[in-house]
Amino acid sequence: MTKVKKRSNCPISQSLDIWGDKWSLLIIRDLMFAKKCTYGDFLKSPEGIATNILASRLHALEENKIIEKLDHPDSKAKVLYKLTRKGIDLLPIMIEINLWAEKYFSTIPEDRKAMIKEMKKDKPGFIKAMTKELEGLK
User: Fold this and answer.
1) Does domain 11-136 have CATH number 1.10.10.10?
2) What is the pTM of this model?
């Protein structure tokens, strides 16, 4: 999965071509909500992504300017992944997915339930605070 050839001019189709596969939104989720930022961090996610798939998705997200790679301050052998502005702009979509899931699934983890409660209390305020936090991580 690299830079994509668009299948149509439909905005949903074009968006899904970039981040709509089984793994990309989970990487974005980890960057956004779990503050994971290294290759090793992503491998530890409970979904169990394979190393080749992770490498491919990270590369595609970087090529499509959803994430960027930065030098790791403590290790020349590691890199940090951060959301770009384009990636941070997916926050409202991620919030809506969480709200939808909370409505239809009973197995939401407690830490996520607490975050969803905050989202529901003041969605615009939550988006503003999270955006500032994500931008501050750069």
Assistant:
1) yes
2) 0.87
